[in-house]
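Give me the fold.
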Amino acid sequence: MSSHKADLNESVIIHPPGFYIIGFLNFPNISVYIIFLGGIYVVSVVFNISLMCIIAFDQRLHCPKFLAVANLAVIDVILNTSTIPGMIKTFLLKDNFVPFNLCLAQMFFHYFALAMESYALAILAYDRLIAICFPLRRSVLNTRPIMFGIVSVFWGYSLGLLAYSTIIMTRLSFCNSVRVFSYFCDYAPVFRLACNDYTLQWTVASLSMLHLIAPLTFILLSYLSILVTVFRMKSVGSRMKALTTCIEHLILVAVFYIPLFSIYLIGLFIKSIDPDQRVLSLSLASCLPPCINPIVYSLKTKEIRNRALALVGKNPNR
């Protein structure tokens, strides 16, 4: 850090009225892209809320698996709501000013939902792990109270950690530029605008990668155990049945983790990445999974599909 940042009087904190979101500087047809994201948002909200209602009103779906699915649906709505409406306001309505406190709120909800999305995928992997590797102990290891406890612990942990991460942003002074090069009030692009020392904020941002690394490690180890168990099965039919229940989840794991890992690592440690490429990649990586999740994973399960068909009068076999 430069010496003037270290020598700045820490008791004098300068907060601007707000920030200006500057993204897609050289991106043609930005309006078409934002309208596309608007469609993604509508589909995401409608499907996820429908999924939550189906699970809530059907007593047969009040089991650990669908508690985890409902948890993912809630997080999906929060994740897309934290960014897409703001992007419509910024890039479609051409109003790119975000008040300071609203900026912090957007930052908090986005990264809280992003962390919880990662943990939710790990929780679903736990459900598959117990179902396939420990079927005889499923009634002990994966009960409704246990699943509710796991979900509650991760919610409490993520809320507390993201509250701290957001609060420490108020220690920064912004006495120069207030132009944020991103698609929303992004954490790293905002703290890099500070004119005092942001080492603490940089450290927190670096450690936040654990929100992705730890759940992904658990998911990979879970599927390693699942593969070992599956290939010990004597029946080919049993193997295929067990693996089929995992395909949708594995697709979502790939869709969520691969783009985020790539762009965050490049953006955090290599500052020369093209701004438009970073903004486009991050916006797609965070906005698409909440739309895909209820369709590819949740709504492809037999119980949810049958209940949805029953609601529209198709009378499926139950």
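The chain has 13 helices and three strands.
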